[in-house]
Predict the 3D structure of the following.
Amino acid sequence: MTKKYIDLSRKIGVLGGGQLGRMLQEAALPYGVDLFFLDNDIKAPCSLFKDNFTHGSYKDFNSTIQFGKDKDILTIEIEHINADALEQLAKYDKLVIPAVDTIRMIQNKAFQKKFLMENDIPSSAFTVLDSKSIAPELANDWYPFVQKSQIDGYDGKGVVVIESAIDLSQQLNTPSILEKLVDIEKELAITIAIEQSGKTHLFPICEMVFNHKLNLVDYLIAPAGIEEKYIKKIKSISTKLAKALKSPGLFSVEFFLTKSGAILVNEIAPRAHNSAHYTIEGCNISQYEAQLRILLGLPIPEITIKGYAGMVNLIGEEKFIGAPYVENLQLLHEQGDAHLHLYGKKETKPGRKMGHITVLNASRAKLISQLKWIKESISIKS
C-alpha cells in the first residue's frame, strides 16, 4: 500500500464565524488543526478564537480576498458569501470546497430550483419572480403557495406562506420564487459527504418536527420513522444529486414526504446544517468531522448511528432580549444520555438559535418522550 502524507499544517479559512464554524473547530481540535474565520459580527461565536478571527464581511470582495490570500484551503459555514472573491482566490491555487459554481447555484434559490429541474430531481412546482412584487393575476394562478427570497434567506427568514388574496399583503418585496404549497406528511433531511475523490457517504435520514410560527425545527429524530421504500428513494435521489453537484463537500438536503407518497427535494445547503447536529454524539463520525476530513483529503469511514438519536433546538423565547440563561438546565441530567451545546452568542432574541441538546436512546418511543420533555421544560431566557 502506498503511504500518502496528509499535511495537517495547511491553513484552513472559513467564511462565516457562527455556530457551525465553532462546532467545526471543535471537531478539528483532536487533529491539531486550527481554523481561521471571517465574520462581520465582532461578537460572532467564533470570535472566541481571537487569534484566528478576522472581523470583516464575507460578502465583501476585498475583505474576502485579504482574508483568503494567506490560506491554503477555503470553505464556508454560510452560503451567502462573495462567490466572485472565492473564484479569484481559486485562481491563486487556493483549494475551495465546495466548488465556487456549486455555491453560486445553491445560494440563489431560483438557480437551485432550475438545477433540480434540469437534473430530473423531483421538487415542487415553481415559478421565478424577478420583480419585487407579485402581480394579483400571477398569484391567482398559484394559490396556495410559498414565497421564498431568491437570496439571503435562512432560519425561516425570507419565507412566507400565502394561501389566498388575504395573505398577499405579507408578500416579500424582493426577487423571489413561488412554490406550490405541498401537502406534507413528514419533513425529512439527509446529509451527503463527498470526498475529494468523489466517493459519497450518506448520513442517516432524520425526521424534523417544525415550529411553524418561526419556520424553525423544534426537534428531530434519527433514523426517521418512514417505510423502507421511502428510505431507498431518498438515498437514490441523494446519490443522483451528489453526482450532479460535481463538487466535494458537505451538503444537507431537506425533503418533503407528501401525503400521496411523493418524495420531493425542498432545499440544498452546501455546508453543515442544523438537521445533522444529532451526529455529534449520535454517529461514529459527526458532520463536522466529515467536513474536516473532506477539506484535508482524508477518507471518511462507513457511517453508523448509535441506536436512536435526537436533537432539540434551544431558541430564544418571546419577549426576552439580553444576556441569555438556560432555564431548568439543572434538570437535564434526568434525561439520561443528553448533551448540551450552547453557541456562545452573547445576546438572546426571540426566535434566535442559541444552542441545542442532543439525546441518545435505544428506544425510539423513549427518545421522543425525552425530546418533548426537553422542548417543554428547558428554555432560553434573559
